[in-house]
Each structure stands twice: as structure tokens, then as C-alpha cells.
Amino acid sequence: MDDEQQRPDHGPLAGFTVGVTAARRADELGALLTRRGAAVLHAPALRIVPLADDGELLAATKQLIDQAPDVVIATTAIGFRGWIEAAEGWGLGEALLGRLRTVELLARGPKVKGAVRAAGLTEEWSPSSESMAEVLDKLLEEGVEGRRVAVQLHGEPLPGFVEALRAGGAEVVGVPVYRWMPPEDIGPVDRLLDATVTRGLDALTFTSAPAAASLLSRAEERGLLAELLAALGHDVLPACVGPVTALPLQARGVDTVQPERFRLGPLVQLLCQELPSRARVLPVAGHRMEIRGHAVLVDGDLRPVPPAGMSLLRALARRPGWVVPRADLLRALPGAGRDEHAVETAMARLRTALGAPKLIQTVVKRGYRLALDAAADTKYADG
């Protein structure tokens, strides 16, 4: 799934390319994006250690069974279910459930509460929202001095939460459900990085903080961190499923967009709003041309454009009146040769890609002017 997926010719994301860094539920996110017209480039920035093979989780489970904590906090439904299933596989299921019945069990939100009750347990308290801040406020209000608090982690370190408990005097024990590790094959991640820094993507999605941190770390190893941050700061939209996921990016000064509800569906809907709003709409010669991502919509019809032609079109569209100095046009054609012939070739490819209405180019004294004409043939002339 690391290659670009085929996209339909319609939908709010038609013409845009979106990067997916998720390891878990990547297929679901990719399907949601492609159904709305996006092309998807997927590279799992991390891999998940199978619970049954996770020695750290086994050790933490045995420790909690042998030495009861005062409080256990279940933070995710899938993580809690996975923990119970892994314990059953180790022959520790009944012992773990028995221990959890003797402690103060808190569940972060309705979904986690459902998982707790499905295991035959009853939570002592759960917030109506899914905010860890509410859980923290309750614990600190009760007082945690001298108490032993076990926190079910789900690959994410919950920065600030654990530190606040320890500052309040608690002994905090982490239960590392679904630990993350770097991917075994780093090739797809490198291709995703290359696509990001070269602006081959229009948006990059993150569904976990470790994935964001891992991508930043890999960029730093390759000497691409500054380029990655520049791309995410201007041309490639960084979209995170929630505020915890965004923390590693925000720590590097990257502003992100996040849905109000921290789910994949709302994340995709947010992209459906944000990306089209960034498209350049140009009414030309009675036609509506919209430059979006790596394609052009002409009167609602999607027309893919070759990379060199797209670079040229973007350079032209950035200037009022479509007048661009010749040097700027040549710089917009990396690898295509910086001469007049390269510009003519790119123009010809644009004409082929866009079809009717025709693209007309005219050389003017200070640069090139680009216009569309539905009837006239394309001509090139000195002006």
C-alpha cells in the first residue's frame, strides 16, 4: 500500500494527493480518502509490536497482579481489550481481571467504558467526554500523594499527564499496550519524505504522536528536517486526528489542523473542507479553471497535468494577470532544461493535458502571458 492508490475523477478531494503515516487502520483511512477523489501515498511511519510477543507488557501485567495499584486508568477501548486478550493468551486473564476488580478503575470516555464492561468489570468513574484532562483533574482533586497509579498506554506517552501525576506525589506505572517501533522497511517512509519535501503531496495525515515523532526523526537522520518543516509550514497541509497526535509537530513550530471529534471520518471531512479552499480558481475566457493539487479542473472536468506543466502552471497562477518574468518560468521547470525550448515543451504538454479550452501563449516583453481560449488554436509568437 506504499504506492499511490488510484483515485476517481470526482469528489471534493479530486486532484489532491494525501500522505498517510498510519500503521493501524491505514486501509480504512485510505479508503475514506480515495472515495472522495484523493490519491493516497501510504507509508507506515511505525510498526506495532504484537501484544502476545511484547515482553514489556507481560512484565507490567505480572507486576500489577503481584503488587496491586491503587488506581488503574484505561485510556483506549482497543488497547484495554487487547491487554485482556493478551493476558488470557499468557494464562493470566483471570488473575488480571481479579486484580482489576479490587482497584479504583477509571475509564477515559464512553468507548473505553464499554470495553471495561464487556470484560465483566465496572468502572468507578468515567468522563462524558474523552478528555484525559478531565481524568487528570479528578485524580488531582482527590489527591494522589503516595498513591500508585497504573496508566494503560497505547503507544503514546501521554505527555504532561504522567508528569502531573508524579508532581502530585503519585507513583506512576505505565502499561505499554501496543508499543511502537520503527518500521522494518524504511524505504516507504523515505519515499513519503521525498514526496513531502518536493511538494508531491498536498496534505500529510497523522493518527498518532509516535508516527509524527518517527517521521521527524527520520527526516533529521537524512538531513531533511529543515526541508520537511518548511514544506509542512507552507505547501503541505499537516492534518492530525487530535491534539495529542499534534504535539511532536507543534514542538517543532508546525501548526496543524485537527477535527473537533478525534476520529478518522471527521479528519477526512476536515481535509474535504481545507484542501479545496486552497485551490486557485481562475475564470478565464468564460471558463472556470481550478488549480488543485496535481491536477486542473476545467469546468468541473478533472485534467491531470504532467509535473513540469504543473510547475509552470503554478508559477504563472501565482502572479496577477498571469504575467511572469522569463527567469521565474525557467526556474519553475527543474530537470527540464532551463531554456526557451523547455518552456515551449511544457506549454505543449499543458495544452495536451487540458485539451479544450485551448491554452494560448504569447511572448510579451517582460515575460509570458497565459490565457485560455475555447475556440482558437494554440499559437506561439513573439510579442
TrEMBL record:
Matching PANTHER family: BLR5956 PROTEIN (PTHR40082:SF1)
Annotated DNA-binding residue span(s): 279-372
Keyword DNA-binding: yes
InterPro entries for the chain: 4pyrrol_syn_uPrphyn_synt_sf, 4pyrrol_synth_uPrphyn_synth, OmpR/PhoB-type_DNA-bd, Sig_transdc_resp-reg_C-effctor, UROS/Hem4, WH-like_DNA-bd_sf
Superkingdom of origin: Bacteria
Protein's recorded name: Uroporphyrinogen-III synthase
Gene Ontology biological process terms from the UniProt entry: phosphorelay signal transduction system; regulation of DNA-templated transcription; uroporphyrinogen III biosynthetic process
UniProt cross-references to Gene3D superfamilies, sorted A to Z: 3.40.50.10090, Winged helix-like DNA-binding domain superfamily/Winged helix DNA-binding domain
Coiled coil spans: none
OmpR/PhoB-type domain span: 279-372
One family name in Pfam for this protein: HEM4
Keywords for this protein: DNA-binding
GO molecular function, one term: uroporphyrinogen-III synthase activity
Record has Nucleotide-binding as a keyword: no
